[in-house]
TrEMBL record:
Keywords: Cell membrane, Membrane, Transmembrane, Transmembrane helix, Transport. This is Phosphonate ABC transporter permease. The keyword Transmembrane applies. The chain crosses the membrane at residues 32-52, 129-154, 175-198, 288-309. CDD domains: TM_PBP2. It is found in: Cell membrane. The lineage of its organism: Bacteria, Pseudomonadati, Pseudomonadota, Alphaproteobacteria, Hyphomicrobiales.
Length: 323
């Protein structure tokens, strides 16, 4: 081997060693930062637990060993009581109390002997709140998103105002809005629909205008070149591109609103959440477990249906990691 080749090999080896040392230093620094971040999280967690303990008059940490005692002691008389409670069937344990009055909750249909079980009916009320809220919120979000997008030539003050309005509408949780509207509209599904709709406008509006801003503007440029006005450009150049993603976000928001409607029901918004609060507050184990099972099955069914529809619209690639 010639001397020049040996010198070049030694130089490359030295350079490689230098790069390796730099890499080791960077790796050590990264590990140090990770450990410091983890330590910071642990410190915050400890202080949070101490604060919770003080706020609970010193009983939080003391009662932690008994965390699951409620579930252990909260059991029905027999497993079939859950089925009887779910379908409003007479109970052999009936003693005239509210605990076993399953038949009282029946909703008879059209004056006949056919009935809808109470919890199925209340679940339908909750789904109605969620679907109505998503439709109302989706409609207004669709109208606002084009005015909030920065690539459609909307006047800056108007765009700024629409974005701030959307931020305000999603700033408050649905349960806070429901509490505010209950003072105006009284308790019930109307206040729940209003609260969920307002939050849906803010959340979907942001998602929608971000989709619009990522749309291909070449069709818009073509329509602008032939003299199309703003509405025509939005209708024929932007909407066809963004509609699949809009529908996907709409379905995703429907799933979220079903859960939100259940929570709002627990504070007087009607539906399955309200009867759940009553049953668990009265220590009615069979009714509570029947509602929990019905909720679980309903949400799983909605999630699966929504996921299937979204895959049909945007394709499986959108659900794959790194796609």
């Amino acid at each position: 081997m010639r001397m020049a080749d040996i010198s070049q090999t030694q130089a490359m080896t030295a350079a490689t060693q230098t790069i390796h040392r730099h890499y080791q230093r960077l790796l050590a620094t990264r590990r140090l930062y990770s450990l410091l971040a983890l330590a910071g999280v642990l410190v915050v967690l400890v202080f949070a637990l101490l604060f919770a303990n003080d706020a609970s008059s010193g009983k939080f940490i003391e009662r932690l060993p008994y965390l699951f005692d409620f579930i252990k002691n909260f059991v029905p008389d027999d497993p079939f009581e859950i089925v009887r409670a779910m379908f409003d069937l007479p109970s052999p344990y009936a003693d005239g109390s509210f605990k076993y009055d399953y038949e009282v909750g029946r909703h008879y249909l059209f004056g006949t002997g056919l009935y809808a079980p109470e919890y199925f009916y209340e679940m339908l009320v909750t789904l109605n709140i969620a679907f109505a809220s998503t439709l109302i919120g989706g409609l207004f979000a669709f109208l606002f998103c084009f005015l909030a997008a920065s690539n459609l030539g909307v006047a800056r003050p108007l765009r700024w105002g629409i974005r701030r309005l959307l931020e305000l509408m999603r700033a408050f949780p649905e349960i806070v809005l429901a509490g505010m509207m209950a003072a105006v509209l009284s308790l019930g599904p109307i206040a729940a629909i209003f609260a969920v709709s307002v939050h849906t406008v803010g959340a979907l509006g942001k998602m929608f205008f971000e989709v619009v801003e990522n749309a291909d503007m070449k069709p818009d440029d073509g329509l602008r070149a032939v003299g199309a006005n703003w509405f025509e450009r939005v209708r024929f150049a932007i909407v066809p591109q963004v509609m699949p993603n809009f529908v996907s976000y709409f379905l995703l928001r429907t799933e979220i609103n079903v859960r939100a409607s259940t929570i709002i029901g627990a504070v007087g918004g009607g539906g399955i959440g309200e009867v759940f609060r009553q049953s668990i507050g009265r220590d009615h184990a069979a009714k509570t477990y029947a509602i929990v099972i019905l909720l679980f099955l309903t949400i799983v069914a909605i999630d699966q249906l929504s996921g299937w529809l979204r895959r049909r619209l945007v394709g499986n690639a959108a659900f794959q990691f790194g796609a």
